[in-house]
Every structure is written in structure tokens, then in C-alpha cells.
């Protein structure tokens, strides 16, 4: 795919450019940093771009985190996690304190019963008055123990509910951290984890493929109709992806107007058919305003396909699919290109592959 600043004649590996730029500036390879520089380098000049340029040649992590908090609301996770951790620690300490209290109370109750039993056994004759006192003391101790146990049970119930609430908060944060806020499909962070899993097993390498899709002339759409319209089109295209894929597929928005689809358990021909079917659906969709009726014209996407068996790593797979995508761009757009055709081969004999 080609960044906005690159000339049409130059093939640009945006992922490689992002990594190289971060290294040149001495920026740590953290997912949140990658997201910042990916957005800056893959899109037109924006407020985010100006903010990053304003940091100079050696931005600090503190400065980058401030930008992340400003422009990427979903990256506030660290504070959420720290807050949840503190709440969990306090709740667990409260539970432990309750259990210690219950143990102490039960031990005290046990001693009262033991002492009463010993006292009764040591007497040959027990007066009615003494017996009433014993019964009264045991009754009070029993009532106190029961009341205390009820209190502990109720408090433990409340603490359990509070812990479940913290758990739900963390699970919700995890979902939000992996979700693109505009399109509500997976984001780059989730995609990076998913593509890495491919190379964790021989099966993943043999039976997975990557499809990269990029909206054609998306900058023109934003320039002609404005960014709100561009956002609506992104949402519609994301819906087309989401409703067109099967359970064995994973779709994410990986950058401005770029989408990625990981397909499992299909051949290269079937992967190509999946990509071309989605491309055709987008081409045939009418993009217009439901409120004003304004017609935004035809929208198309270019795609690149690469089988996992054609690459040596997640980075290599992404790069090769990206090259195939760029070939679709330079050959007229609105088409799907296979990396294997570009490479002039049908793939490695990965049936002989053994993972180190």
C-alpha cells in the first residue's frame, strides 16, 4: 500500500516504513507507539501528524503516551488495569480479613463449648441455677456465632458481587482495547495478535491466508464530501466484511482505510474467491446519505492475497500481501492480486515444513 506522501512509481511497505521510522527516532516498539506512527505515515496530514512532528527527533515515551491518550481513547487501558488491580487487592484483603475474623470467632466459640463441657464433667451434681447459667451462656455464644456467620456470609456475597463487577470491567476493557471504535470490528492490536498465532503451529502455516484490502482513492472521498462521510463509508464497508465472512475468518481495520482478513482452512483459490466476492459486493453497493439522499458514487477496494505458506513470519506475510495489494493499485484498482502469481510460483512445499 502507498502512503499519501509517496510517489506512484515507488512501492512502499508501510509496515516496514513505520518500524524504520520508529527505530530512527529511538521509539520503543510498543503497540500503542506503532498505532500512532502507522496512522501518521499511512494517512494525510492531520492534527495527529502535526502533534507527532512537534515532538522533534527524540520523542520521549511520556510525550507519546500523552498523544496516545489524546487521540486514541481506547489506549487508556493502563490506568484502567491499575485501578482494577488496586480494587482487586483491597477486595481480596477484605475477604481475607473476614475469613480470619470468622476463624477467630469460631475458635472462641469452640473454647466456650470445651470449657463448659469440662466444667460440667467435673461436677458430680449440677444445680438448676447453674444449669440455667450454662444454657444461657451457651445460647448467647451460639446466637453470637450464628449472627456473626450470617454477617460474614452477607459480606462475602457483597464482596463476590464487587469482584464480579471488577472482572466485568476488565473484560469490557479487553474487548474495547481490541475493537476499532469507528467500525466496531477488530483493530490493529487484535490483528497483530491473530496473525502472530498463525506461525505458532504447522497447521496454522499450512491452512491460513491473509487478505489485505484498501479503499481506492479514499482521500478523494474525504476531500469531496468531508471526513464524516468518509467515516460512514468505512462503517458500511466494515459491515460488508462482517456480514460476508464465515466463522473461520477474522476481519480487522488495520489502519485508516485498510482492512485485513485472515482466512483459515481454505485453499488459495477459495481465498481468492472470498476476496473477489467481497470486492464485488462493495463495488455493487450504493453509498449514499440516508438523510439527504446524496449519492457519493461508486466505491471500490483493491486487495492482495498471500497464503501463510508463502511467508516465513507474520511480518513477511503482511509484507507480501501488501505488495500484492499495491500491484492491484498500480494495475487499475478494484481487483484482487495473488502474491504467488507475482512471485511466479505456486508456493513452497510446506508439507515438508518442520517448525524449529
Give a description of the structure.
- 61% of the residues lie in helices and 9% in strands.
- With 356 residues, it is an alpha+beta fold.
- The longest helix is centred in the middle third of the chain and has 50 residues, at 128-177.
- It folds into 3 domains: 14-75, no CATH class; 77-177; 188-352, Reverse transcriptase/Diguanylate cyclase domain (Alpha-Beta Plaits, 2-Layer Sandwich), CATH 3.30.70.
- The protein has 13 helices and 5 strands.
- Helix 1 packs across helix 2, helix 5 (77-121) packs antiparallel against helix 6 and helix 9 packs across helix 10 (227-244).
- Residues 1-12 and 346-356 have low confidence and may be disordered.
- The chain is elongated, with a radius of gyration of 32 Å.
- The two termini are 32 Å apart.
- A hairpin with a 2-residue loop joins strand 2 and strand 3 (258-264).
- The chain has a 5-stranded mixed beta sheet with strand order 2-3-1-4-5, with helices on both faces.
List keywords for this structure.
single chain; 356 residues; alpha+beta; Alpha-Beta Plaits; 3 domains; 5-stranded mixed sheet; 13 helices; 5 strands; 9% strand; disordered N terminus
What is the architecture of the largest domain at the second tier of CATH? 2-Layer Sandwich
Which segments are poorly predicted (pLDDT under 50) over 5 or more consecutive residues? 1-12, 346-356
Order of helices and strands: HHHHHHHHEHHEEHEHEH
Number of strands: 5
The largest β sheet comes out as: 5 strands, mixed
Mean pLDDT: 78
Oligomer classification: single chain
User: What is the CATH first-level class name of the largest domain?
Assistant: Alpha Beta
Question: What is the strand arrangement across the widest sheet?
Answer: 2-3-1-4-5
CATH homologous superfamily title of the largest domain: Reverse transcriptase/Diguanylate cyclase domain
- What does the radius of gyration come to? 32 Å
